[in-house]
Amino acid sequence: xxxxxxxxxxxxxxxxxxxxxxxxxxxxxxxxxxxxxxxxxxxxxxxxxxxxxxxxxxxxxxxxxxxxxxxxxxxxxxxxxxxxxxxxxxxxxxxxxxxxxxxxxxxxxxxxxxxxxxxxxxxxxxxxxxxxxxxxxxxxxxxxxxxxxxxxxxxxxxxxxxxxxxxxxxxxxxxxxxxxxxxxxxxxxxxxxxxxxxxxxxxxxxxxxxxxxxxxxxxxxxxxxxxxxxxxxxxxxxxxxxxxxxxxxxxxxxxxxxxxxxxxxxxxxxxxxxxxxxxxxxxxxxxxxxxxxxxxxxxxxxxxxxxxxxxxxxxxxxxxxxxxxxxxxxxxxxxxxxxxxxxxxxxxxxxxxxxxxxxxxxxxxxxxxxxxxxxxxxxxxxxxxxxxxxxxxxxxxxxxxxxxxxxxxxxxxxxxxxxxxxxxxxxxxxxxxxxxxxxxxxxxxxxxxxxxxxxxxxxxxxxxxxxxxxxxxxxxxxxxxxxxxxxxxxxxxxxxxxxxxxxxxxxxxxxxxxxxxxxxxxxxxxxxxxxxxxxxxxxxxxxxxxxxxxxxxxxxxxxxxxxxxxxxxxxxxxxxxxxxx
Length: 581
What we know:
Radius of gyration: 30 Å
Largest sheet: 11 strands, mixed
Strand order of the largest sheet: 14-13-23-22-21-15-20-19-16-18-17
Distance between the termini: 67 Å
Structural class: alpha/beta
């Protein structure tokens, strides 16, 4: 469910001439029956509101006094969100003959044409106050207080992100809170300035328009319809048309050969999520995202990330998470991930977030033999980004849920064709032609499993390059197929180094023949280049390997120095080679 909360204005939206129709209350109860919540956002003073609409219990929160007061109907608690008006202001306004004049817990209100006297009093007293207009009403509030700030306070209490809110209103003072909501709606009869900026223009006036919106929510008609302002920047196609991604509804698979640019695509999408404040959670099996900006890391190489810590972190919609799984044994990672996925999906049921789940090295966590319990994986899995070098090894359960595929690198066309074949689908002629064309630098194939379309897209580069692998390669646990094996000339040994630290430890302790065998073949620089994906480290190692007169001790020291200059090793990492000179 995308939208978990409906926020509505009162006068001119929920109410017509101050009264709420019985059929409108019925429509709101229908919304509640879907598991959604309601918040009332009004410029009225609370006591005045309760005199005309006494039963507020269908609302989880009431934002009154144009954002200055928060009310909890279930407990009847009131919470002031700003300081009350100074007595000097009220005295000045009475002296100037301003009437009518009413005061709430924070707000001071009158009507036009008294705005001139109001501004004069504020200026003479040197107060930091603002004047807000609403269909003839003149409201005086502390600077920075409006319906958006009040709604934000309500959402924070409810742990609901603005991205999971639909807002509806009609007048000037609704601008701020409608802009805050993921989707904004204007009832018929709303001011032109409101209707022109609203994402949805409802036909019905006041309560009739609200009932129209409530019916859409009950039927979930707008779940996959996103305003242009919320779409995710991605790139441009071969005709120069901007290509964006839906912020809701897709399960995206990014695949390509090693070092083909998968990480660039993933980082582009994650950065677009950050720019629009969508909450994301990255599942990071190998420590590639340990320096992800704007995210909190849970887990480390010597400690399994605690699931309850992940859940607690993500309950704050303003916090993004990276779950580092380098401390989880490789054989245990699918089991651990299944349990964590169940926790995350429960969070989504309650709050609609994290908005996106990014699963790196997805074929390790969701291997072909993975069969999730029916209670874990919903039939439609949305807002998931899967990244893998081996899409064919991915669980068929997950492959069937993919709605978009981004194929990267020289094997992009072949990977796309194989994916379509595994799904039992066929490519339209135009899409097939796209898979056969050679991709340019920075280009990918973007395929839709929904309509069969395939476009060549030049990715908009992320603003910062990701510093990858520092912890994974230094201290983490690389899988067996990416580890270095010291075997020697006669293959008598099979010593596995699953990270750079262990590589140095074994290199310091093996016999001279084994060291020399791999050294003369250039195996060390080849591993750094092909597996560690560090061309600078590989070049430094190759230079060491070319020096045939260098002693083993000096060669190991040179490799260590090259590694230390790029990666952080523990202080107790091994130093010299034993007994070699």
